[in-house]
Amino acid sequence: MTAPKTHPSIVLPSPFAPPTLLQTPTHAPNPNEALIKVTWTCSTPLDLHRAAGNLAIPSFPFHLGTAFAGTIVTLWLSPSLSSSSSGLNINHELHETLKEGDRVFGFVSDGNPREAAFQTYVTVPVHKISKLPQGIVGWGLREAVTVPANLVTAFHCLSADLGIRLPWPKPRGFKSGEGKKVLVWGGGSSVGLYVIQVLKYWGYDHVIAVASGKHHGELRRLGARVCFDYRNSGVVGEIGRYLDREGGQGAGPRIPYFVDCIGSRDGTLKPLSKIAERGSKVAVMLPVIEVPAAEGRRPVFAADEKHVEGVVWQEGVEVMGVRTLNYEENGFYRDKLQPEIIPALLAQGAIQPNRTRIVEGATLLERAQNALQLLRDQVPSGERLVWKVSEEEQ
């Protein structure tokens, strides 16, 4: 397979402008990088925040996309590259299992013209590549592309923000989470589905999920002990009565850990502020949305997740914003999470990919635009929006 000198990519050309197509140079890989032909990608709320809200965009054109799935075209592995020269602990035994023609997927940084996912070719460091496990039945690259961005988010949120131990490899009989309550608001979201599965794998057996009632059966199957429907006006009271029946956690808060998978001032933070108690830790997906994007309306984001207008936390509640793009600050996760941990969990069946909704369109640009519109209309529920980048099926 030979790569062209340039290829099409989806970019934001200027503030608040709709995405457009840009011919982008195809970058040959540097040491310990791979050039990958992208077959599938998926759209996330971050794409809408960038496009409709101009969120954290330093310059234009801005390349979109944080998850890819495709095939390795060219690979340059360099055993001479050491941690002292690169800052990376390259596991060459692990990465040498990669070869040209392998089907792979990964979480990458949007805004980076080399690796942003909404383009037909990406050039990606090997520590951001997961190899599709062999022998899996019933799913492939289309489903795999739903995994990396939000499973990385789940790991980063639980470990970096909440301080939950997720040792790898998991020690036999590891049950440090037994009996500890974790409330996941937005359990039916992509992030929520992965958070619940990760918690189950590491022994957290008292997960409280808040999601639309239509998702409750799936959430219980994935690891939630009890589910509540956020659509019920009295859901906060229902959760409170459940906690009264269950009893406390000794001297600590009844629920020590909260994950807000949505990050909405009115939809999630306000109700959570009525449940969290002194000593609780609350991890909130960013940005916190004060006014959501809609047709003809730009979103409004809170400047500080800890101090959101109209949200009053009890004294002693610790609120943290989840910044997934910082996950590489944890050297172990930087080196192991995508190349080793994620493929292993998928191969074991410990993690199931999200359900997919294929976004149609006659062209690459049309598919990208249609996906943004579906996000703006808040259509996805318990599924990921996936769409073809390169037309060839892999």
From TrEMBL:
CDD domains recorded: enoyl_reductase_like (cd08249)
Alphabetically, the GO molecular function entries are: oxidoreductase activity, acting on NAD(P)H
A Pfam family hit: ADH_N
Q: Which residues form the signal peptide?
A: none
The keyword NAD appears for this protein: no
Annotated Enoyl reductase (ER) domain ranges read 14-386
**According to the lineage, what is the superkingdom?**
Eukaryota
Q: Which InterPro entries match?
A: ADH-like_N (IPR013154), ER (IPR020843), GroES-like_sf (IPR011032), NAD(P)-bd_dom_sf (IPR036291), Trans-enoyl_RdTase-like (IPR047122)
Which keywords annotate this record?
Answer: Oxidoreductase
Transmembrane spans:
none
Tell me the PANTHER family matching this sequence. ENOYL REDUCTASE (ER) DOMAIN-CONTAINING PROTEIN, HYPOTHETICAL OXIDOREDUCTASE (EUROFUNG)
> Its family?
Belongs to the zinc-containing alcohol dehydrogenase family.
Task: Give the protein name, as stated in the record.
Answer: Podospora anserina S mat+ genomic DNA chromosome 1, supercontig 4
